[in-house]
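Form 7-S
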Amino acid sequence: MRTAVILAGGLGTRLYPVTREIPKPLIPVQGRTLTEHVLDILKEHGVREVILSVGYKADKIKEYFGSGERFGVSITYLIEKEPLGTGGWMHLLECIPDEEFVVVNGDNLFDLDLDAALQIHKSTNALVTIGLTTVEDVEHYGVVDMDGDAILRFVEKPSRDEAPSNRINSGYYIFSPAVFSEVPDAAKFMLEKDLFPKLAANGRLSGFVSEAQWFDTGTFERWDKVIHEWRAPEKEYKPLLKN
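Output:
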């Protein structure tokens, strides 16, 4: 896979006041920006063409990354003039990739084996394959119900007794170009609510489960955990920041 879309248009409100000045894609993690770590993951699997979907403080993000040359990739931009949800970028693409491509939530880091996920994607004839990670606290996430590699449905924030599994959406996906025929007409829509359930009902949504490192950076506590643990040797974690 040569192409990836990074979804990086959010406001990062849970990281205020930091993100009032610094857009979330540029927050520091181990001396580099969060997005540079995402680029590392993608480049390890052959991605060289990156589409950054940006909105909030887009000028700062474009100024920092430019054409992407100094980061070892080619970067182009989709500009959301207003928030379009996690799926609106699909209407902004001028040219649909001619092969499978990666889509990534830019505020998540996941050491996912994208090549292995691609094999599952092709073998199941899926239009989208979701990278899945496992968690203990299922009550805080949307949990998937699966039959083999097929995702049947999503259960939002279930109790532990009612959860069909402990597998959740990591925010890392493989898309086939044909999925664009299933995109909702609305300019603003959510992948998780408006597209993925439809694909699951039609048997065209697969999941690839990985126990690799996964972090989101949605709160100060989680951001601090990423700073200490992302791709670091295992050690006891002692939080320094408080919500």
